[in-house]
Amino acid sequence: MRGPGEALDEGLAGTGAAPAPTGPDLAATAAGLDLIGAEEIARLLTPVAAAEAVAGVLRGGFDPESDPPRVNLPVAAGELLLMPAASGAYAGVKIAGVAPANPARGLPRITGSYLLLDGATLLPLALLDGAALTTLRTPAVSAVALAHLAAPDAARLVLFGAGPQAYGHLRAALAVRELKSLTVVARSPEAVEALVAYARTLGVEARGGAPQDVRDADLVICCTTARAPLFDGRLVADGATVVAVGSHEPGARETDTALVRRSAVYVESRAAALREAGDLLIPLNEGAIGPGQITGTLAELLSGRAPVAPDRPRLFKSVGMAWEDLAVAAALHRARCHPTGQHDIVR
Predict the structure, then answer these.
(1) What's residue 33's pLDDT?
(2) Digit-coded pLDDT (tens) for 150-176
(3) Secondary structure of the chain in the HEC alphabet?
């Protein structure tokens, strides 16, 4: 497999010509670009290995507060997202589309591509399926949070949603906790039945359920397109962990004000959460909470600087950040070029 400079060397070999002053031959560089599709993404990294990639970036000292803001562009079909990031040996950018009407057409709601670049030269290294990357990255981030927030004996999961993120989050939860039961809450009975059947193949007792089932849950994971709260936050048990990943819009949320007020709240980045997380911004704008409601960040959890409250719910609100895409994309590229086995821890 060729490195970023080898395609350039081949393009100049034997020509007797000096390199153009404007830089390398981009066509020659593109000839060495790795294409990593959805099936290969699913095969290259386990959920635990993806979570380790995310945790490893934070352990290496990266500060998510420095991550560039997401660029959102409304378009007729929905929304275009631009998410650039750079850290160490790599840089990259995700161009994603969110098309709410696509599922009715039998098409994915999330589309896009990820361009991975060499950090030193910014030459392209790989082009990845953006939707598949997101489907792997988001549960990986949640797995890191669950590994630090969920009670060690947490075994009862209530999962809101039955799309690709629900499947990914089920696998992520199983990677860090020994689940005994799963309750799936979603709008489509057929989708619920399919996810229940899949969970049973993984050895988890599973059934469909209703929002009030959160009262018996150790873990609640929300990965939906909902714009209003999915359940009554007063029902969540003290010591239970709630993960909400479905929205990055200030006006949309999956959890209610009651839950946020009584929870210890953890986020990827304070700046990103206070810019995009409707689950927090709506109660903040209502005056129901203050910015100090955020107990800690993912980096602070890993370093031990954020306390884990034992006597109230723990809410992790994720909006998805560009550095996370870069961490997992780089791990996928390394796994493809230098397969060395998978990690088995996220702590």
Answers:
(1) 87
(2) 999 999 999 999 999 999 999 999 999
(3) CCCCCHHHHHHHCCCCCCCCCCCCCHHHHHHCCEEECHHHHHHHCCHHHHHHHHHHHHHCCCCHHHCCCCEEEEECCEEEEEEEEEECCEEEEEEEEECCCHHHHCCCCEEEEEEEEECCCCCEEEEEEHHHHHHHHHHHHHHHHHHHHCCCCCCEEEEECCCHHHHHHHHHHHHHCCCCEEEEECCCHHHHHHHHHHHHHCCCEEEECCHHHHHHCCEEEECCCCCCCCCCHHHCCCCCEEEECCCCCCCCCCCCHHHHHHCEEEECCHHHHHHHCHHHHHHHHCCCCCHHHEEEEHHHHHHCCCCCCCCCCEEEECCCCHHHHHHHHHHHHHHHHCCCCCCCCCC
pLDDT at 198: 98
Beta carbons within 10 angstroms of residue 167's beta carbon: 19
Provide mean pLDDT across the span 261-283. Answer: 97
**Contact criterion met (CB below 8 Å) for 191 and 165:** no
How far apart, in whole angstroms, are the C-alpha atoms of residue 260 and residue 197? 32
Q: What is the mean pLDDT of residues 63-90?
A: 94
